[in-house]
Each structure stands twice: as C-alpha cells, then as structure tokens.
Amino acid sequence: MNEKTQYQLVKAIQKLRLCKGFELNDMQALLPICRFSQYEQGQQIYGFGEPSREMLILLMGKLNVVTDSGEVLAEIPS
Questions:
Q1: CA dihedral of 64, 19, 9, 6, whole degrees rounded to 10
Q2: Residues 75, 60: contact at Cβ < 8 Å?
Q3: How far is CA 30 from its chain centroid?
Q4: What's the mean per-residue pLDDT of the chain?
Q5: Is the pLDDT of residue 30 over 90?
Q6: 3-state secondary structure of 7
C-alpha cells in the first residue's frame, strides 16, 4: 500500500465516530486490513442473510438497502 493510499485511509478512519480518540499509531494498526473498493451503480454488495466478516466505510456516493422485490428500505449517504 503506497503512502497516498495510507494517508487517505487514515483520513477516512479519523472521520468515524467509532474511532474517535484513536491515536495515529492505532489508526496505522488498522491499515494492513483496509482496502479500497469501488462498486458500480446497482451492483449488489451483500444479499439478505449472507454472512460477512467485513466493515464497509462509505467514502463517496450512497448505499441503498433494497428488498428482493426492489423496495428501498434505507438510503445511506456518504
């Protein structure tokens, strides 16, 4: 992971209420397990009931929670 990517990730982590009070070394300890991902509009990230071991941080755009029938249950802005 290059320095620019590390810097961007640290800036994103700093914005999270979950990580409020973290020191720089705490944030740097998270970097090895972080990665950037991009998704296309309409792309499904998870399906109902599917297990996940990830935590996603939305940096840009919006995320819709949608039922199988297409009903939007929630819209999460960045």
A1: -160
A2: no
A3: 13
A4: 88
A5: no
A6: helix
Please, is 40 exposed, middle or buried when counting C-beta atoms within 10 Å of its C-beta (0-12, 13-18, 19+)? exposed
Structure tokens at 63: 């995320």
Residue 3 three-state SS: helix
Q: What distance lies between CA 67 and its chain's CA centroid?
A: 21
Tokens matching residue 25: 């070394």
To which residue do tokens 């700093």 refer?
A: 14
Dihedral sign of CA atoms 12, 14, 17, 18 in order:
positive
Residue 1 has pLDDT above 80, yes or no: no
> Cα 56–57–62 angle (5° rounding)?
100
Contact 57, 16 (CB under 8 A): yes
